[in-house]
Amino acid sequence: GSTDFDLFRTSEEHEMLRESVRALAEAKIAPFATEVDEEGRFPQEALDALVANDLHAVHVPETYGGAGADALATVIVIEEVARVCASSSLIPAVNKLGSLPVILSGSEELKAKYMAPLAKGDAMFSYCLSEPEAGSDAAGMKTRAVRDGDFYVLNGVKRWITNAGVSEYYTVMAVTDPEKRSKGISAFVVEKGDEGVSFGAPEKKLGIKGSPTREVYFDNVRIPADRMIGAEGTGFATAMKTLDHTRVTIAAQALGIAQGALDYAKGYVQERKQFGKAIAEFQGIQFMLADMAMKIEAARQLTYAAAAKSERTDSDLTFFGAAAKCYASDVAMEVTTDAVQLLGGYGYTRDYPVERMMRDAKITQIYEGTNQIQRIVMARNLP
Ligand code: CAA
Phi and psi at residue 112, in whole multiples of 5°? Predict the structure, then answer.
């Protein structure tokens, strides 16, 4: 039977999932991580391996043909993939981000139509909220959706869209009533093949180079009105509710990157000899590793607690999602920077993976809301 102590221990099923994802990630994703980063190419091998093992969109409910994983299982999948390749971890993470608005607020028809191909691995999903002039102030968006009979016509530009061009489906937030600011925003599903949809050139980024980030253009894109997710005017609330859940997945990504850096550095200091002994024998090195492990564990506890709240409707998820994302991403930046330091000059070169991890970690402090925005969200929702 379960006791109160079990609250602080992941279940056997979750740990078995971790073992199998770790083995898969080591065998099928890690071997390409350097190449994917250097060439800035999509990690097709990772997508294939994730789809073959039904790990590309584990959050999709069973009713719609998905694996029906809970939020903690989803976190573990993302964490273990990010441990070897942050770019690849954006496949399960952004599939959740893009599709959660439909799962949370969409009609049964929308769910049935769009979740099945996602669950099967035939289509990926992206999330279009940010614009060139509307990043932190998401409600300041300009993209318009104008009703025309049984259709809506979309015009505008979305920026920083993760996996743009690769994804088949896009959840797009657009203004339906400019008078009402956040209450005048609605959400829609747009397909890559819809006439008038096009993409900008891939951004040249510091990290997560294997995950394409592009602008998405909507030029008189005419879509059936039943592609609206939920009622008119509820799109901003849906977008925010979605982020409450998916900031936990970015925390998971950050956690995985940090763990990967610690694991690598831990092995390195045992091999590297200076002054006649392994540098792991120096207390200055041991203290750094101890701090790194301590911070990772604190980030993990907060992230898993947030994931548990993600499953409960009566919870203070808004605070916890923001806190987990903010804290874990700061830890990822600190730990990866320390990992580079532990490898010294070698750590600064592309011959070792830690500089990639440091570059990849940086984005987790920026996307799905900067860590400054997370503090606004936390302050407005103190527990
Ligand atoms: N749950 C449900 N509804 C919510 C909500 C939540 N967590 N937060 C806001 N809402 C709704 C409410 O209906 C609210 O109205 P009421 O006040 O009447 O309840 C309405 O939205 C407006 O909310 P705010 O007044 O809080 O809106 P705001 O303009 O002050 O903005 C903000 C709030 C927190 C700053 C928000 O703009 C924000 O989160 N900004 C950051 C945007 C962001 O995270 N972007 C990430 C892009 S996605 C990405 O990065 C993906 C990727 O590439 C991987």
Answer: -60, -45
Contact 116, 125 (CB under 8 A): no
* ipTM confidence score: 0.98
DSSP 3-state of 132: coil
Instruction: Write out pLDDT tens, residues 196-209.
Output: 999 999 999 999 99
Distance 343 CA to ligand 1 centre (A): 40
pLDDT in tens, 273-286: 999 999 999 999 99
Query: Considering Cα of 29, then 31, then 33, then 38, what sign does the dihedral take?
Result: negative
Q: Which residue has the tokens 């939920």?
A: 230
**CB neighbours of residue 226 within 10 Å:** 14
Question: Which candidate, 373, 375, 336, 383, places its Cα nearest to that of 358?
Answer: 336
* Owner of token pair 């043909």: 65
Distance CA 80, CA 18 (A): 7
Which residue is it, tokens 């932190």? 136
pTM of the model: 0.98
DSSP string, 296-325: HHHHHHHHHHHHHHHT-TTS-HHHHHHHHH
Q: Which residues are catalytic?
A: 368
| Residue of the CA atom closest to atom 48 of ligand 1 | 368
